[in-house]
């Protein structure tokens, strides 16, 4: 397992994914690092630390190297997320690990999309085939963001599955990341998601979300524009 007292590069994340996959296969999910464990909390913190994304966000590296690092990073990171999802189903981990893992993904996905957009901006826009490819990529990105936000809203609609502190942390991560996601989406997607959030606001099951949910709505809607003086 890579050392937890330094920032991980892409090789470290990929290796961590392989080590934890093998450990869970051979001995069980209960050995996954835990958020508040005296023995493994530092490893869990390192896995979810946003500093690890430097391996593909450093613009001093070539696109080729950044994409190579991104592939390795995602290979390890996705493996780890799937392990925690499986461990939650078997009750070998806690909801807080799921929340922190989700929060980590919510933070690094905008950076991933930034890299893809930088790459597309570097392509020859005069090539019709390239323009078509970029358009498809943007549509896929929009769909992925929309589905992620829908998933998060669905999670918020079932508050009984969380302790209050876990809920507050999830809403906190949404405060941090949702405005970034909404800025990327076309108007019809934004309106659809705001409609879902507004219905959630009215649900009697989500009172424990307040005032966080109202604050989140204000953030994703943006500042209210005052009418121009006559």
Helix content: 55-70%
Report the sheet with the most strands, covering strand number, pairing sense and barrel closure: none
> Strand pairing plus helix content: what structural class?
mainly alpha
Shape: flat
Kindly report the average pLDDT value. Answer: 88
Task: Please report the distance between the alpha carbons of the first and last residues.
Answer: 66 Å
Radius of gyration over all CA atoms, rounded: 20 Å
The run of helices and strands is: HHHHHHHHH
With helices defined by DSSP (H or I, 4 residues minimum), what is the helix count?
A: 9
Furnish the topology, listing elements before pairings.
Layout: H1 10-27, H2 41-48, H3 54-57, H4 63-89, H5 95-121, H6 128-156, H7 164-184, H8 187-202, H9 212-221
Helix pairs in contact: 1-4, 4-5, 5-7, 6-7, 6-8, 7-9, 8-9
């Amino acid at each position: 397992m890579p050392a937890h007292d330094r920032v991980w590069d892409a090789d470290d994340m990929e290796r961590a994914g392989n080590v934890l996959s093998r450990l869970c296969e051979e001995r069980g999910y209960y050995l996954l690092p835990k958020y508040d464990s005296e023995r493994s909390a530092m490893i869990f913190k390192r896995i979810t630390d946003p500093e690890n994304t430097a391996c593909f966000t450093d613009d001093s590296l070539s696109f080729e190297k950044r994409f190579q690092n991104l592939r390795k990073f995602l290979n390890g990171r996705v493996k780890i997320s799937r392990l925690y999802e499986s461990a939650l189903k078997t009750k070998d981990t806690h909801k807080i690990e799921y929340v922190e893992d989700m929060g980590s993904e919510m933070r690094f996905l905008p950076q991933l999309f930034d890299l893809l957009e930088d790459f597309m901006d570097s392509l020859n826009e005069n090539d019709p085939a390239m323009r078509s490819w970029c358009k498809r990529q943007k549509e896929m990105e929009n769909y992925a963001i929309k589905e992620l936000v829908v998933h998060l809203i669905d999670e918020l609609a079932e508050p009984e599955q969380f302790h209050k502190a876990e809920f507050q942390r999830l809403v906190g991560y949404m405060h941090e990341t949702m405005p970034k996601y909404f800025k990327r989406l076309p108007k019809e997607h934004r309106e659809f998601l705001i409609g879902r959030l507004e219905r959630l606001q009215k649900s009697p099951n989500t009172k424990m979300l307040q005032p966080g949910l109202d604050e989140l709505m204000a953030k994703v809607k943006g500042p209210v524009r005052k009418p121009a003086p006559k």
